[in-house]
Amino acid sequence: MNNTDKKSIIDEIKHLKNEKDAVILVHNYQRPEIQDIADYMGDSLDLSRKAANIDCKIIVFCGVKFMAESAKILSPEKTVLLPRKDAGCPMADMVTVAELRELKAKHPDAIVVSYVNTNADVKAESDVCCTSANAVKVVQSIKSNKIIFTPDRNLGSWVQRFTDKDIILWDGYCYVHQGMNPRSIKLAKGLHPNAKLIVHPECRPQVIDLADEVLSTSGMIRFAKESATNKILIGTEEGILYRLKRENPDKTFYAAGPARVCRSMKVTKLEDVLIALKEKRYKIEIPEFIREKAKKALEEMLKYI
Ligand code: 13P
Ligand code: SF4
Questions:
Q1: CA of 202 to the centre of ligand 2 (A)
Q2: How far is the CA of 76 from the centre of ligand 1 (A)?
């Protein structure tokens, strides 16, 4: 697309957004041109909070399906649009309600904590949700000593480092973070010996062991801004580098090893956002009996920063 075409699409998006009282929420991994049209950017927790509190008729969610579903669960009166139907999170599909019920039956005394990266029906089957930003606090706040944690085994085992509770881990993972390996991270550290390494808790424990900080994506944005260090190795999906560089032009950021790309986070293009606004597509719809139960688990999560 040439620059004139791009500009006219962006102008049309802005015009439609105002006309239809729409707001564009954008996850930190989205393409640069999508980040540039965001009204608000953030991690899963920031964007859930924003969706719950923002005053508008339409939310256009540039992220993946579970994020748009969370927005709809928390704000049912709004129209929530996911511009691409194929923007799903493979990890969210690694746990189903039937499988979770089976595990619950084996551990009737366990509390179910589900990562927000789950489908709405699994949230409805859970006691509380968490994100990468508040998982440790959510688990620590639970009275019961036994917890079923779905679906990310890496986030769950990261949380286990901070509690004596018995955490039964679901065997799910994010292929983007699972693919980061300690050998290439050690190489990157060797190339940039003065840089700090910050990684996402979806990484494998062997990668987490090498990190200076383990943070959600917005935690990384805050760390980059506030830290005195001016060289930072980033252990997460590569889309965040654009925002980090834009907001901190005086600092240097490197991917920790070969760049990792989440396909689902990259399918949304400017044209899709325009069509979403024009045709109100694709509307997120959640059956009310699921939404009500999922809302309880999400609202419980929102108590923790
Ligand atoms: P954050 O909530 O940290 O942005 O993570 C979302 C996600 O999908 C990470 O892979
Ligand atoms: Fe899902 Fe991983 Fe992509 Fe995040 S980066 S949306 S967890 S596949």
A1: 9
A2: 23
pLDDT in tens, 146-197: 999 999 999 999 999 999 999 999 999 999 999 999 999 999 999 999 999 9
Per CATH, which fold does 92-173+289-302 belong to?
Rossmann fold (3.40.50)
pLDDT tens for each residue of 245-264: 999 999 999 999 999 999 99
Q: HSE of 86 in the Cβ direction (CA atoms, 13 Å)?
A: 8
Q: Which superfamily does CATH assign the domain made up of 3-87+265-286 to?
A: NadA-like (3.40.50.10800)
Ligand 2 is surrounded, with C-beta below 6 A, by 64, 89-91, 117, 174, 176, 202, 237, 262, 264-265
pLDDT, residue 1, reads: 81
Ligand 2: which residue has its CA nearest to atom 3?
A: 262
- Identify which ligand lies nearest to the alpha carbon of 27: 1
Claim: this prediction has a pTM higher than 0.85: yes
Q: Check residue 3 and give its pLDDT.
A: 85
Dihedral Cα 302, 211, 253, 191, nearest 10 deg? -170
Instruction: Out of 3.40.50.10800, 3.30.565.10, 3.40.50.150, 3.30.300.20, select the CATH number for domain 180-259.
Output: 3.40.50.10800
